[in-house]
Write a structure and sequence with these properties.
Radius of gyration: 18 Å
Largest sheet: 6 strands, antiparallel
Strand content: 15-25%
Helix content: 10-25%
Mean pLDDT: 81
Strand order of the largest sheet: 3-8-4-5-6-7
Number of strands: 8
Order of helices and strands: HHHEEHHEEEEEE
Low-confidence stretches: 6-19, 23-27, 60-74
Structural class: alpha+beta
Number of helices: 5
Shape: globular
């Protein structure tokens, strides 16, 4: 749950695909745009309406007898992450923008909670976490995945605990809804054999495509969209299970 304090440069955007059709708000989109690209470009107040459309469409499809495998542009994890970023009502949250809180989201049940000042490293003084109901980076990832899977698949641990429950994937296979981690990830060797991962991570975000993520960045900010290069030490893309 380490708080991010520094930024770095730009990240090249991967090519986009898609057919000319209408966006989640009914507007005719440009060729090559998809639902997630359109959402990224909307102001937050307009994303609230668009995310409701996306998430509602997913729930309608997934509730049918023969629910199809949805395309990346409409996957449940990403729709939920957008909905949280836009301040939509969620189970465990009445709605509104969610602030960063050091240690927030690590109660017994996932979701926004008051944080802790133990180990706090932020620049805002005195530490506001114990009086701020919100999420830190791993608390956000835990909640998004719990809402999507219907159970607490990541658990109450920090980024080091979470990454051990996931599978690393290549950048070429990365999809919106995957998690992006920061820090050092390696392996230990026991008697010449590869053993458990040796990890020391400090940040995680929900990848939304186009080189961007939804994340809880640091004290004084709210859940928001940032380029994946906003944090140093990129460690790769990870997927559950």
């Amino acid at each position: 749950m380490t708080e991010v304090l520094r930024y770095e440069g730009a990240h090249p955007k991967p090519p986009q695909t898609g057919e000319r059709r209408r966006d989640p708000l009914g507007r005719l989109r440009s060729p090559g745009r998809d639902d997630l690209s359109e959402l990224r470009d909307l102001p937050r107040r307009r994303r609230r309406a668009a995310t409701a459309v996306l998430l509602g469409t997913f729930l309608l499809l997934s509730g049918s007898a023969s629910a199809p495998i949805l395309p990346v542009t409409l996957n449940r994890l990403t729709a939920i992450a957008y909905s949280i970023e836009a301040g939509q009502y969620q189970q465990g949250w009445q709605g509104g923008e969610i602030p960063y809180s050091w240690g927030g989201g690590h109660d017994k049940a996932p979701g926004p909670s008051f944080g802790t000042c133990e180990g706090y490293q932020g620049s805002v003084r005195p530490c506001p976490a114990t009086r701020t109901r919100g999420l830190d980076c791993s608390g956000l990832a835990r909640w998004v995945y719990q809402l999507a899977y219907g159970r607490d698949v990541l658990g109450p641990g920090n980024t080091n605990d979470h990454i051990r429950r996931l599978t690393r994937i290549s950048a070429a296979r990365a999809q919106p809804g995957d998690l992006v981690f920061y820090g050092k990830v390696g392996t230990r060797k026991f008697y010449g054999k590869v053993g458990a991962r040796k990890v020391r991570t400090h940040h995680v975000g929900v990848y939304i495509g186009d080189g961007k993520m939804i994340n809880a960045l640091r004290t004084g900010t709210e859940i928001r969209i940032d380029p994946i290069t906003a944090v140093k030490g990129f460690a790769g893309y990870y997927r559950f299970p």
